[in-house]
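Repro:
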Amino acid sequence: MRTLYVVAHPEATHHVEGVVGGWYDSRLTPVGVRAAVSIAQALRAQIPDGAEVELFSSDLQRTRQTAETVGALFDVKLTLDRRLREKSYGEAGGRPQEWLDRRFIPPPAAGERMDHDEGVKGAETKAQWVQRIYAAMDEILQRPCEHQIIVTHGGSLTFVVASWIKMPIESADYASFRGPSGSITTLREDDFFHTRQVVSLGDTRHLDAAQR
């Protein structure tokens, strides 16, 4: 049986500064640092002692910091993968959120959504974003490990889950499985039917300790 634990990094500086995240390389806030400890402890409570564990993370600071906290508790090597990053918002990254809001062109309700131009120079299309997340997931799932931890971003979580349930890329343009910052999503595949379950989505119960 394989279980994936997908972590959406906790509070980072771009959240409290009101600027666009994306590939902007923000760090965890003090609240986020405490939340990362709670995340690591929650994962430690779920994964049996002595079990083989693999750890993967986006290479941006806020995810790497979170993953390093988890890795220290499990004493496992961290594999960084830039394909697990959040969507790139191009020249909007690090600018005030209202700057992006004034320029952003939302996708149409119907028609071409995957290659839609959002009106922001250098921003990824949804197709580019989805394709890299799916490629990273394909490699992770080829590895025969029963417990795998993936640290990514709230937006990218959607496509980690979509990949897990084998949603065709061309159908992912309407998908939304986003979880809150600092949440843990648990995914499980059984050894008999090889069905893939979303056990929990965006669980934040462990964050209560970080907020005390």
